[in-house]
Write a structure and sequence with these properties.
Shape: flat
Bound molecules: the ligand NC(=[NH2+])NCCC[C@H]1O[C@@H](n2cnc3c(N)ncnc32)[C@H](O)[C@@H]1O
Helix content: 10-25%
Amino acid sequence: LPCRCKEPASTSLVQEKHGLKALPSQDEMNEAKTNYDTGILNNKLQVVVAFSDFKAVDDNQLSFCRGDEMQILYKPNSDWWWAEIHGNEGYIPTNHITEKTREEWEADRWQDVEYFDSYADLKLHLEMLSDNARTNAYKDAIIQNAESLSNKVVVDVGCGTGILSLLCAKHANVKQVYGVEASDIVHHTQHLIDQNGLTNKITIFKDKVENITLPDKVDIIISEWMGTLLLFELMIESVLLARNLWLKDTGVMWPSDASLYLVPCSATDEYNKKIAFWDCVYGFDFSYLKSFAMQEYFGKPVFNHELKSTDCLDSPLCVLKMKMKTFQIDELEEIVKEFSFKVTKKSTFHGFASWFSVDFGGFNNQNTVTLDTGPTSRLTHWKQDLFMMNDAVQVTVGDKIEGSIVIKRNAEWRRHLVVTFKYQMIFHCDQNIKNFEKTFPLWK
Ligand SMILES: NC(=[NH2+])NCCC[C@H]1O[C@@H](n2cnc3c(N)ncnc32)[C@H](O)[C@@H]1O
């Protein structure tokens, strides 16, 4: 099948670019055929997965795309193997493929080992449980909707220590709670449930929610999946998958709604401490270092910034609103939002700040509880995010900042994002226009 790969490069370019040796000789190929004829691999042909595209440059090579699976027939040398895909045979370059299974390859792209290891000990769970604004929002939602939760079946996706499951079981007369947790913290969770006398109400599943089978569909999915810029970690994908698999049509998602906000801001302290600092260091001009400092400190978002309301240069804009009952996973690949801010005060524009809020929609649209992580609400462990631009610009009332934010999911590293700001500043006094653009990996 013609592969949707890029245009073919020349042989030499392909070989130079990928550092490939020459194709195998006829002798190497004959030797390989002889070995395999003796059934060295006990007849089960090895299957490999491509982790990058390859465009054949002559007719004895095979073209393929990232994610394609190929059967290996012969291994004449370490650089080129003879493989089969879609009924065609030919040479494939071994530095484009992984010998891992598709499951292992997929897990790598999600960095599952590091990810779930990070939740295996108490550190992150203590941080989350110590965040009273966060945990009490869930508790308030459960208590205020206890009536509606009565006799309902709940699944807690990513239950961690089980706190949300315990709150549901204690403060509402739920029929059953399933707690699902893939990290090793789950080995403590059952003890905590037993110790608090809720064993008969809560069942724990020790695996990824993608891999488990629940006894039946559920009435409510409750989960605390929000990360930096709302989406980082992309745990939301697992929650939406769980919805597609296990939520009744009449079911409720908690949070029911999630919104991401953006505002132009000044960040004078941060800028002065880390960038302006280099202008004069013990009487010496170190300004040569400013661009390096900008890259080192602000090449990526600042995820624990504390934004003051007085830092905001206009009202915030909602750049993403997700109805969790209907939002689709593929909508996460790329989110684009145009903005047009109008500066409301004389200040210095340093960049943009972001935060999120989530709603726990009441079952009858009453008793909705909101967890807001913005500058006018109680501080949470998420704080706010700062995207520091490379140029600090003096602004005054009426100046405009018009452009777009693009949040693009990393095609390779599936928990990561890339955020690009592209905008122009139109200065009120002389209508002078300046163009700016900056891209922030989050985090790869
Ligand atoms: N608000 C966040 N940024 N993180 C909140 C905690 C996320 C919890 O869910 C667990 N978790 C994450 N993804 C999954 C998954 N697909 N299946 C099961 N547990 C998961 C993870 O191990 C951790 O204990």
